[in-house]
Design goal:
Strand content of chain A: 5-15%
CATH architecture of the largest domain in chain A: 3-Layer(aba) Sandwich
Helix content of chain A: 40-55%
Structural class of chain A: alpha/beta
Number of domains of chain A: 2
Oligomer: homotetramer
Largest interface: A-D, 57 and 57 residues
Distance between the termini of chain A: 43 Å
Order of helices and strands of chain A: HHEHEHEHEEEHEEEHHHHEEHEEHH
Chain lengths: ~400, ~400, ~400, ~400
């Protein structure tokens, strides 16, 4: 039987009906003014979601990985040094990408489950009296561990160090779902993807670029053409694109942002927080803990659940897919087997999340894990019904 | 926020992705051979689902109500007598329709929550020595009360009475979801709709008509044109339709039947039984009862849940829609307020049903009903995970 | 090879992208307020398209044929007399329907290719001094011959006769494409279908009903339930529907009317006139004539082209479908073989029409008809490019 | 008015209904086995379309430009020399890309309208006795001029020179529409895009890579991560993708190839040839010429039409879009204004092409160009109807 069970992977997320319809469009001549009419609102919308006050939005037919690559190839040169903390699979991959492009990466190894170590970053920057560090890389939401780092704090640490490095932030699994303040946080490049908070299929890297990062384009010598911001900005100015753009995804992006803004960005963030908190209540009721070590680190888009001793999180993910047709995320890298991940971002409701929790419980029981069926569901129900009432009252 | 919560009304049901795509087609010339290539598999598929061995399938751009009307106008004449039991809103409505068309309806009033009273029907038929009763009307699955009547038993009762009346069965909310045996049960007209077990949007009445009922067309004098079987059959024979057919729904019907048969009709029925049984376990865990008075009457497509004294089922339905974006069915007619209804038919999974049960529980708690959150969910989880395992093992 | 050639049948018409998407919706609880929010704009829109100032709109899950049946069963009683002219297949069918419902039809036989004979109708009404004629039936646009009758003139004729019969108009292939004035013309029931000017799939009969016709409901004794206006109006008033409505088609209807009104109804009518006139120029360039005998009768939605002596229009239709994948309409009834029909209504552009004309020419050449390739196309091109310029200038 | 006029740009092409539906899918967990079930047929299909006998298929969430970049960054190192002829905008852009990535490009300047100069290439290779040329770049179909180069001949020239350079071919606007023989022609990397012959939206670069090119990965030092073949192949082998793949496009690719193979690749190529030849007949009837200087160079996917002295091709493109809602391609680079381009590739029929020709004629007349309306249409009609008959006869 086909099913329409929601997915609980931390992206791609469930695609809203209306966004699917916006993406699914007949061929449009991308060299005609019709393309500009469609592209401009998408760009303007991204600017509002990122809370940009200056700089430029860049949209690439690519993914978050391509966005990372574009961020460095447009601003840096071979041999340049960047500073990055490694505390999960996605912070690791960005570091790896930098190394493969000939950058020197000053790595601050950090236990998985923790976030960006602001004090160590500050210290490293203070120590860099010669200004060799050109950019600090930060993973806003580490999807592997469900950890949100404090980017505002990172900016304060950089300022405290008096360092002029650029700040590049991977917001792939946070932007559109959790508060993001490009201008207020002094972010130089923010990288998002279409398939998370923007609720679209994969296929777009979405970047915000500050004037400082734009200025770096002129001296950067890492080679790039497909990802070249200069070609992009020149074409955008004329209402075009330097090569054939993925028109449907761009139309869908505009529509998705319209949806986010109809709900209200703050309401979207509050909803994600509620959904996440319900999941965390369920996790506690199961007698388990998130991988994120302290509450201030809890992600509102994904929870990596540490499984009991002797249990294997990957077994749950496999069973859920095979027996119940429900997709969760496995643990990656260092936490492979030790966690399973519940994605709770994008177009999702209390009701949908409850079905995910109920499924996880059935799998746990099937696998002989110590669990009381309905326990996590009940904890989440109690939280959801209470907080939903509060939201309704607040709306009056 | 838009949601993609499933619906739990007893039809229209959640439409599968692939069926939606089959329905959503560009314009096709219905006078071309392409239409016949699309129509014939739909007709043949209906024949298999109804378990017909003879007679004809009729597909009308209409609904179940139109199907009822077509059944009587094509076979009966003003003043004819039909026999019917009334034990719910839908059995009532068919009776009302007959009366409005000038038929005399011999009504066996039956308490709501019970099914077709085989003994009384047999007695009535035996008493009709002059053969005035031309047809017996039966509602296979009374959607208002969640009661399934025993049509095989009804046939036996008719045979025991030695009566030659035709047997017309409303299978709108059973066909495609629960076993139906047109030939074996000696059904003369079976009426289905597109929007229940066939998982389509509303818009088609689907009928199986026995040779005996077809023969009655010649003498029936109730007026009809739009619904006239004679025009239909004449056109069908030529690969056409007597007027503009709803081509997309017909394409969708063929696709839906393909889905049912890919799963296997018996597997489809077993799945509905499992889904229903899980719901009933939850109802019991809540300390409540189905409206259907005995287990042999339990419907596998809809459960009407009797609410506790002092509670109003309609409140739950309203709250679920407004606060959680989930649709249940209200009580209708005699049981208005006394029940709420959970539809569990069509393209539905364990996981989806659990989200409905969890929602109902939240509403009950919100309304101050005596309920332990998670209790019904846990009962259903236990049943689902156990029976799902059993199904998997049986498949090896 | 699949193709996306447009269809040139006189309905169903090519469905606009946006209308298809509006129709293709997930299941919505038709008993919830969400249904009313969707239904009311559709009803209000129909009222504007029909130019109604009073009375009610009725929307039935049916087709034009069902609309005809609903018109008479809701207002008339067995044995009642109606007056109708027969001059094509569709006027014939409505007459046949009346007869099958036990009405007496006073028929004015009229040559195919002509329209409603106003003088004869006036004379018949004048002769009916006893007022036995309860309704006059008129086919606004006879789809079989491409003839538009003068409904305003018919109203004047009825008034001149001083007769109080109701006026029922079949506007199935005119409404939404050619001017229609329900109030100004004193129409008592107007019947439209979803699949012509409304550009939807088949599946809805759409009726405007005057207060006079509504009053007739109370005395009408023709049986009806599925089509009963009384049930409809009672349910509509509560934001509902008497049975399961085809929600997607209703959503699509609202969207289609929005499209028509975005373009402007007058602009829609002007576009249809231009498209039709281009087709007629092509027909003249081919040395052929429309079936409609005089220009005042020319339909703007369909042209029935009289084929040269010794040629068979059906051959062209068959060849076009088989060799070029293009659908035209065959001649029906009296003009079978003598015409082929080009539908030019709905979502259609100059460019699409030209492809139809070019195809017809290729078929004619293939069949050995006397034709110069490109001749009709050139005539239509000349007209389209000239009138398109004029339209653009007028818009400034 | 919305329109559903076909587009006549040389890509993106009109997307078939069934391909759109395949692309428009709900979220699927790309780390589940379901992804592999979807990905493998797409990869296998590409292999068949490219006529590969060995090597690997690489699919990147990108465009043709990204495909070019991937081709060189995976096989070459900074300072390496490549040989390329420049005879149009797309051959120019690939050269530019190489230069921006630090390659030395030995350019053979060739007049626009001509194809790859086999003799000069052979001479250049012969002169390169030290083997500095690592790769020869060839644009199979130069979209700017409508010129098809002889890749089989290029291979013969390379062999005649006894040179071991790799052969990289841009087949973006040829593959899937014109014969392509990766194995027989000894192509080392073939680059295609989703939005041309594969009839999909833009968003995929599709590459075939020979064992020789795969071997070059190990020594190539141009930086790459997003485009790294090594990561791709490692992930593919495990049924996965190195980052989030565009699942819908991949599903659509498999479906598109199914369509091509249902028609038969040879039939697809023959259809494109017929469509192109009809366009060329029209061009001749207009008294104009293709930009491609000799018939052996004529592209079957796009015709760049040289406009009469004193006329500007861009005016026609602008007018067609604004007045008739039809998209043609403008002239680019050296031939800006001197040509307009008619794309005739992808899902297109005779009938659709005729509408494009008719539109072009109207525009020419509107612009005062010397043209007889209907002349080009007639020439194409004559050819289409004749060759269509021949095809049907051949099929018997």
């Amino acid at each position: 039987m086909q099913s329409q069970n929601p997915v609980f992977i931390p992206g791609p997320t469930n695609i809203p009906e209306t966004v699917r319809k916006a993406c699914d469009m007949p061929t449009l001549d991308h060299r005609s003014p019709a393309f500009a009419r469609l592209f401009r609102p998408a760009v303007a919308g991204v600017r509002r979601v990122l809370k940009m006050t200056e700089g430029e939005v860049i949209i690439l037919p690519s993914t978050g990985t391509g966005g990372w690559e574009a961020a460095i190839t447009n601003t840096l040169s071979p041999g340049d040094t960047v500073l990055a903390a490694r505390f999960g699979m996605f912070s690791h991959r960005w570091i790896d990408l930098c190394q493969r492009h000939g950058l020197r990466v000053q790595i601050i190894e950090t236990p998985w489950g923790q976030g960006a170590p602001l004090d160590k970053i500050e210290a490293a920057l203070k120590a860099d009296t010669s200004g060799t560090i050109k950019a600090v890389l930060a993973t806003h939401n580490e999807t592997a561990t469900g950890v949100r780092s404090d980017i505002a704090g990172l900016r304060r640490a950089m300022d405290a160090a008096g360092h002029t490095a650029m700040l590049f932030v991977d917001g792939v699994s946070s932007i559109g779902s959790m508060p993001f303040e490009m201008a207020a946080w002094g972010v130089d490049i923010a990288v998002a993807g279409s398939q998370k908070g923007f609720m679209l299929p994969a296929g777009l890297a979405i970047l915000g670029v500050s004037p400082k990062a734009l200025a770096a384009m002129d001296t950067a010598t890492l080679p790039r053409t497909f990802f070249d911001f200069r070609d992009m900005l020149k074409s955008y100015a004329a209402g075009g694109f330097p090569y054939t753009p993925p028109v449907g995804l761009i139309a869908g992006l505009a529509r998705a942002i319209e949806m986010l803004e109809d709900e209200g960005l703050d309401a979207v963030y509050a909803r994600h927080h509620r959904l996440a908190e319900g999941v965390r209540r369920a996790v506690a009721a199961w007698g388990m803990k998130p991988c994120a070590v302290t509450p201030d680190l809890y992600s509102d888009t994904v929870t990596a659940v540490l499984v009991p001793e002797g249990c294997n999180g990957t077994d749950l993910v496999t069973l859920a897919a095979q027996k119940y047709g429900v997709a969760f995320g496995v643990g990656l890298g260092e936490v492979a087997g030790r966690v399973f991940r519940i994605g709770h971002l994008g177009m999702l409701t209390d009701v949908m999340v409850l079905s995910g929790l109920a499924t996880a419980e059935m799998c746990m029981a099937d696998l002989g894990w110590p669990i009381t069926l309905g326990s996590g569901v009940a904890a989440a129900q109690e939280y959801y019904r209470g907080s939903a009432v509060a939201m309704a009252m607040a709306a009056e």
